[in-house]
Amino acid sequence: MNSRPLLKKWLKIIQDELDQVIDFWVKYSHDKEHGGFFTCLADDGAVFDETKYMWLQARQVWMYFRLYQDVPRLKNRDIWNPAVKGADFLLKCLVEKNSCTRCPFSVTKDGQAIKIQRNLFSECFFVMAMSETWRATNVDKYKVAAVSFMQKIRHWCIVDDSALGADDLPGTTKTSKLAVAMMSLCLCEQMHISNLQWENLSGDEEKLEDWSVRNLLSHVQRSGTVVLESVSLSGQEIPGADGRLYVPGHAIECGWFLLQHALQCNNVMLAEKACLCFIDAAFSKGWDADNGGLFYFLDADGYCPLQLEWNMKLWWPHCEAMIAFILSYKFKKETRLLDNFVKVAEYTFSKFSDKKGEWYGYLNRKGEVSSNFKGGPWKGCFHVPRAMLMCENILLELIDSCDK
Q1: Each residue of 302-361: pLDDT tens digit?
Q2: Phi, psi dihedrals of residue 373, rounded to the nearest 5°
Q3: Which of 8, 27, 151, 357 is the most buried (most CB within 10 A)?
Q4: Cα(125)–Cα(94) distance, rounded to whole angstroms?
């Protein structure tokens, strides 16, 4: 099959979409007074809440600098200047809590902390932002911040997470969370790209990268048919609804992280497992055969999930699926993988994309818009442009290989 015309068709669609989405955030999200970004944006871009969510601030800083450096047509001051101001806003918002410097979850528009979460995700995206800012600017304060917080994250993951403040109650069972292992692997990749040395190990201490891969694989349960969100610290399935929780979009996202890592390490066995157990299995179980789109939550035993929004269709799993299938196709060159990419892309662009700018994030099961805002506490300038950027780059490689 000559795939070149199809690849070129989707390259044009994705390039146009990336430009349109970034234009929306440039027009409406910048806080010119205090720095940083407003992410609670209505359908028309109006700011309906000025609370700033730090993980979204960090994601937008990372996204802007990555685009500035990797996409020549977006190499402009409309992206560079707000990215620098956003990075400095992040540094200003750090707080001392229980003798530990933390990155708050939310702040006022001028940077006063509102809430600190008992997990490490704000810090993870802070590291992404600081390391990418360092890569773009070579300014030492960003490098120092990235390395310092990366060392904290390694400690929280491998040694002791008590500084995060989680309650140690008698009925609580400590578990391994899929999101933690995925984010730690993502950060290791980011630090490699930024050429930052941060893991000074001695003795028998293990590398965070190895720990991340091993923990991600421990979530593959039931002979490789499901990737569960939570397992025991020893890698066993845990009882109850929480133990059976299966998030297809999250499994697919972990799949392309693992696949990307495996390809860089030339680990074919790991690459195959990423495709089979994470991407293919999750797509097969998660795709709504009646209405199209990926379900948000599933129960591994087929019960109705406790999450009331379980059958909604959200923007980000579809972004991850597009990345996963076009990367899988690059690896295996199987037509079915390209077909799945097109299947997801056609649904995604027809349901989420809005020509007024950006995407709607939340659809009901039938694919109808449920919430018409373009940004909020959980949706910012990240999943859509990241997916468009990665798909554009992979499509360009595939087209180039067709021409040779």
Answers
A1: 999 999 999 999 999 999 999 999 999 999 999 999 999 999 999 999 999 998 889 999
A2: -75, 160
A3: 357
A4: 13
